[in-house]
UniProtKB/TrEMBL annotation:
Keywords: Carbohydrate metabolism, Cellulose degradation, Chitin-binding, Disulfide bond, Polysaccharide degradation, Secreted, Signal. Residues 1-19 form the signal peptide. This is lytic cellulose monooxygenase (C4-dehydrogenating). Gene3D superfamilies: 2.70.50.70, Endochitinase-like. It comes from Xylaria bambusicola.
């Protein structure tokens, strides 16, 4: 991938500085639009990866220095896949997505505008997608993002009206609440949707929010400590409005943390062929691969086990298949004491 001009040099000089994460690159149907292109991104090096902690700040809309429009607008067809890359540094050097301690939910918002150079703050924002915490797989959205090399995708609704939009991916890190406020990482892509509905955009008022203003410091969604040692009261309920589902569209959530070049499903409902289960071999203290059927398809969406017939070996989500049928790499997925499935991935006796 291309790198921001000069950023690699500067990043190398300040490599010891703390980096958090930044929305760096946009992809349309798996094709990179170029680092920074069509993005309202900041080139202020000492701030570009910093979190937003003031919830009433205009930076909440499109990120730090996000009030400044980008010179480009990227076209996308209604129904196509739009992917966002988050990096530890905008230059990609050193590599990384976001620190693994930054546990929390993610969401993607959109706002139709007359012109993408408009002020992004204020009302008109609606939610296209969200992912909080999966109790079955014990996984936060940010863990899925890291496992997918910093890529998160959404399918633009097929009936989304033609026009110009600001599309806003969001990370909410909840790991440091004992020491400070919740941390937001966001940015905006300037997009023009083509081939969609010719009707005006009509979003119910209960799905529309103002940014900043859609979430308050007192809201439970920003006061849920995700630190591994914190006492948690699940389920975690994401903040903001509910996801708006466009009438007549059949978008799929399966692509969110799927392969960048993976196809967009024609329906949100996928069918699978159940695979036979081979005999398991005894696990050792190191990962055991002996009982895995190497002929199984590798999981493309993080699911595994007999129901779907997928293995976790070599998947982007991790090599271990949990008792709940999700791929991962932590003890919650890999330990035989919590039901790791050796037929569908690596397991450890720990």
């Amino acid at each position: 991938m291309k790198s921001f001009p000069i950023l690699s040099l500067i990043a190398s000089l300040i490599g010891s500085a703390q980096a958090h994460g930044v929305f760096s690159t946009l992809f349309v149907d798996g094709v990179s639009q170029g680092d920074g292109k069509c993005l309202r991104t900041s080139f202020t090096i000492d701030k570009i990866t910093s979190p937003i902690t003031e919830l009433d700040s205009p930076d909440m809309a499109c990120g730090i220095v996000g009030q400044t429009p980008a010179p480009d607008i990227c076209p996308i067809k209604a129904g196509a896949k739009l992917s966002f890359e988050f990096r530890l540094w905008a230059s990609g050097s050193p590599p990384g997505t976001i620190d693994s301690s930054h546990l929390g939910p993610m969401a993607i918002y959109a706002k139709q505008v007359h012109n993408t150079s408009e002020d992004p703050t204020g009302t008109g924002w609606f939610k296209l997608w969200e992912y909080g915490y999966d109790e079955g797989s014990h996984t936060w959205a940010t863990e899925k993002l890291i496992a997918n090399d910093g890529i998160v995708s959404v399918q633009i609704p097929g009936t989304m009206p033609t026009g110009q939009y600001l599309i806003r991916p969001e990370i909410l890190a909840l790991h440091n609440l004992a020491a400070g406020p919740a941390q937001f990482y966001t940015g905006c892509a300037q997009m023009e949707v083509k081939g969609g509905s010719s009707k005006p955009l009509e979003i119910p008022t209960d799905h529309l929010v103002s940014i900043p203003g859609y979430i308050k410091a007192s809201d439970p969604a920003v006061n849920f400590n995700s630190h591994p040692d914190a006492v948690k009261n699940f389920p975690y309920i994401p903040g903001g409005p509910k996801v708006y589902e466009f009438p007549g569209s059949t978008e799929s959530d399966d692509i969110a943390f799927g392969p960048l070049n993976g196809p967009v499903p024609s329906s949100s409902t996928a069918t699978y062929t159940t695979a036979s289960i081979p005999a398991a071999t005894p696990e050792t203290s190191s990962p055991s691969y002996g009982g895995v059927d190497k002929g199984l398809a590798v999981s493309f969406d993080g699911t595994c086990g007999i129901t779907v017939g997928f293995t976790c070996l070599t998947s982007v989500y991790g090599d271990c298949c949990s008792s709940k049928g999700w791929c991962g790499s932590t003890q919650a997925y890999c330990s035989t004491f919590v039901g790791c499935q050796p037929q569908f991935g690596a397991c450890k006796q720990s």
